[in-house]
Give the backbone structure.
Amino acid sequence: MTKTERLYYTDCYLREFEARVLRSEPAPNGFKIYLDRTAFYPTSGGQPTDSGTIAGIQVLEAVDEGDEIGHVLPQAPDAEGVSGKIDWARRFDHMQQHTGQHVLSAAFERIGSYKTVSFHLGEDSSSIDLDSDRLGVRQLEEAENAANQVVFENRPVRIFFQPAGKASQLDLRKPTSREGEVRLVEVEGFDLSACGGTHVSRTGAVGLILVRKVERMKGLTRVEFICGGRAHRQARRDFRVLSEAARLFSAALEKVPELISKQSQDLREGIREKDKLLERLAEYQARELWQAAPLIDGRRVVRHVLPAEESSQAKMLAHALAKLPSAVALLGVKGKPTALVFAQTPSGPSEMGSILKQTVTKFGGKGGGGRDFAQGGGLEESRLEEALAYAQALLARAPEAVK
Ligand SMILES: [Zn+2]
């Protein structure tokens, strides 16, 4: 087994290369091929694989196997000599995010000795975990400012190698356990790290570094960030969304939060007003129904079916009826599902819970309640009237009602 020469180690800007296929073997998604040299960065150290082509065939993934790098392809190339081509847009994006991460991690280290314990470069955003859950907004902004300052200064980013013994004596941001030759990435005057990743050659190429989200976990803070092209695209999306909100309010962008807060307050007040009016309406409606209801055994029995759109008022109406003297409310509500609300004037002679239970047992559905108030539903809409008539018959049969 030979060592794959990692061309990206010394030249992160190499997009095309020539290589020799040493061997190929079947793999779950096709074939895994091994070259004498490659510019493909393999999945490792928090950075995802490069994509691109080898001999014109799409590379599905490059895999780090220690000394060797395996390239997963749907089919094996025919020739021994192949040319490789890196998907440059994807690679450069990864370079921006990864160098941005070094700068941001070093900035957190500088402003408060917060250490980066892990790094993940994702499809949409990246994150670092810091070893403290005590960071506030001020520290985050301070680190973000310091990181962007280093970008503006366009400092050189140098990659060089040192034997492990020598490297461990250098002022590395994080000690390395690597043996043999250690690859070091230096942001001039700001950061020195052992890293195998791909990086831009000057900090200016990172572009803007934006912290997007902060999540506190036990003993850790996860900081989500985006750099360069991602930051630009996100800023544009943010602007579009905000502009749309501002357009809906016919207001300036910066007025939007204030207007949202005012509108939701108005809405809450409006809902309170509406509820008050509905309650008054229920009182009038109750009185009307009560007056028109037949007198049965000295009680006003209101049997009434409400349309589905008045379902939220049924309970209100039942309570309003129960406030009137010697009243019984047997209310049904159409819709899917249907509802039943039964009530009586407190200390009336019936057991509303039991009447409702018996009704749904006979007609289907479920529900129950106490002596003066009960609710349920779920029976067929076409049987509502019948169910209410049945409930009314139960009123008469209730032992307490017998005089
Ligand atoms: Zn790195």
